[in-house]
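Much of what follows relies on a compact textual record of a protein's fold. Here is one such record, which you should read through line by line:
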Amino acid sequence: MNQVVRDALAQRQGPIKQATDWVFKNSRTGAAICDVKKSFAAACKDAKIDDFHFHDLRHTFGTRLADTGADPFVIAEIMGHSDLRMTKRYCHATDHRKQGAVERIADYRAPENCHKIVTTEERKVG
């Protein structure tokens, strides 16, 4: 959890007074909310988003981590994967990231990274 999320939760909930306080609780009963499926489905319906499932958020999270340039091993650790093949299933290359990779090739063209281009005729003479 990053600081932005901590701040949002603290603002929403107020300071937690004791270890047994729930972060998400039913406003009528005060009991813990343990399942967000109905709320998530209602939010998707209100937003007119079709065919989106709660688990899709893991794919979005993995992809966004990769977009920031996070190391695949770090992504795997954060997501709880023991195998990078599973992480690969969650981290999808975005057009923006692919375009950025192609653009970075221009920086690689520095003289210390490039060999002198020599024509066949020059090779024969040399």
In short: The longest helix spans residues 95-108.
